[in-house]
Specification:
- The structure is a single chain.
- The chain is an alpha+beta fold.
- It has two domains: 3-55, Orthogonal Bundle (Multidrug-efflux Transporter Regulator, Chain: A, Domain 2); 72-234.
- Helix content is 48%, strand content 18%.
- It has nine helices and eight strands.
- The radius of gyration is 26 Å and the shape is elongated.
Length: 253
């Protein structure tokens, strides 16, 4: 790096609109990097440009656990609308398959199953299996109750941060998975009323090939949207922190 690519203390103060004390505080806590030449500090122009654009020296990345930075107030209404339009159940889970949001448009059949402790545990295991899948594209699996579920990764291109899970439907060629005999066995296992569970099963959505393909596309695009919303929130918070840091005033001044 040539000497012309370094800025003086005065130049940095003028560019960032801060005082000398704040600049030295930023040096001490690592918000800006500088080199000392003789008795004078010099600062990389590229470092200062990053601060002006709202990007810190140590770029803040989307957190691995994904949970704390999800803008739920934006995501949940979108989740509700898509679930209603597609006539399926839909929710967000972490990368281990643990449920993060309430299931939008949950069907009566699944609500009955999840009303029991055994049913909730069995559903959790089904979602964990989805999380453990090595598939990179949207794919379908059968849950413990015979219904279909599909998963799309919510990621930042380098790692899976969470999952968007759609389910509570069956496919035309898989309707036999919800036969009366199988539902009776499920009701016995979960200690549910057989007639009521059979009645609820009749209301389960049955998807043809066209709707199955559409749901795969919707799910993939929605997962990308949720990831971008979360990424935008992280970026906003990062920029806000930069503004706050640059606005700090030495109380002893």
């Amino acid at each position: 790096m040539s000497f012309s690519e370094f800025l003086t203390t005065k130049q940095v103060i003028n560019l960032l609109h801060i005082d000398r004390t704040t600049l030295y505080r930023m040096l001490n806590d690592g918000r800006i990097k500088g080199v000392k030449i003789g008795n004078q500090w010099r600062f990389s122009k590229s470092e200062v440009d990053k601060l002006l654009s709202g990007v810190s020296s140590e770029t803040e990345e989307l957190p691995k656990d994904f949970i704390e930075d999800i803008p739920y107030q934006c995501i949940i209404p979108v989740q509700d609308v898509v679930a209603d339009i597609a006539e399926i159940g839909l929710f967000l889970a972490d990368k281990e398959g643990k449920q993060l949001t309430e299931i939008s448009n949950s069907c009566e059949f699944c609500e009955m199953i999840r009303s029991t402790e055994k049913g909730r545990a069995a559903c959790a295991v089904s979602w964990q299996k989805l999380a453990q899948s090595k598939e990179t594209e949207v794919h379908f699996i059968q849950c413990h109750a015979g219904l279909q579920y599909a998963m799309a990764k919510v990621d930042d291109t380098s790692q899976k941060l969470g999952m968007l899970i759609a389910g509570q439907f069956t496919l035309k060629n898989l309707k036999e998975n919800l036969s009366r005999d199988k539902i009776k066995l499920l009701a016995e296992k979960l200690e549910l009323d057989k007639k009521e569970l059979i009645s609820a099963a009749k209301k389960i959505a049955v998807l043809d090939d066209r709707r199955e393909t559409k749901i795969s596309g919707w799910l993939k695009n929605l997962a990308k949207t949720f990831a971008q919303l979360t990424r935008d929130r992280v970026d906003f918070i990062s920029r806000f922190r930069q503004i706050m840091n640059l606005s700090m005033i030495n109380p002893n001044k």
